[in-house]
Amino acid sequence: MKRFLACASAIGSMIVLAACSSGNGNSPALGTTVKTTGSLTPMGDGMSGAPLQLTPTTVVYAVRATGSIAQNGQFEIITIKNTATIDMADATTLEEGGGFRLVTRDGATTPANNDNAKYVRPDSYPGPPIPANSTVWSVAVFDITPQERGGTLEYKDGHGFTFRWSIPGSDSGPQVEAMKMLISS
What we know:
It is built from two helices and ten strands. By secondary structure, the protein is α+β, with helices and mostly antiparallel strands. The protein has one domain: Immunoglobulin-like (Sandwich). The strands form three sheets. A four-stranded antiparallel sheet has the order 1-2-5-8. The chain has a four-stranded antiparallel sheet with strand order 7-6-9-10, with no helix packed on it. The longest helix is centred in the N-terminal third of the chain and has 18 residues, at 2-19.
């Protein structure tokens, strides 16, 4: 039994490490779920660091979104499925030294909600905090140049672990049409 538990633990660790790649081009694709610690900052009820599952599912590129025009030429909008499996959870923010960033193909790093991206808030994507045992959708939005499309999405959790996903340079994923309708207003 001990050998079985050790194997199961090792396999679970390999799954997390696969998404926690070194950024060498081997990052998993959209649709890959990772389990993070979320934020370590206490929430209103004093809870923090609850497990949070993150799954980036779709990327959409647009010059204009929810009434805002991209300052740098284009928005990269990534939908994220956030699931709290045990307790209420929250995502780590940039102010906490974590959160979402986009690493472009040339190595430049752009934080989420930069420039005019902070004004892009599609309805139906309210984001964290996430009540226990539920799922909430959010978006990570980046104001980029057209040459910066694609790259690697990074999320740094409350324990400092960085998770990465490879992002295509064109619209991709199951919510493309729905997101295009939401941002067209």
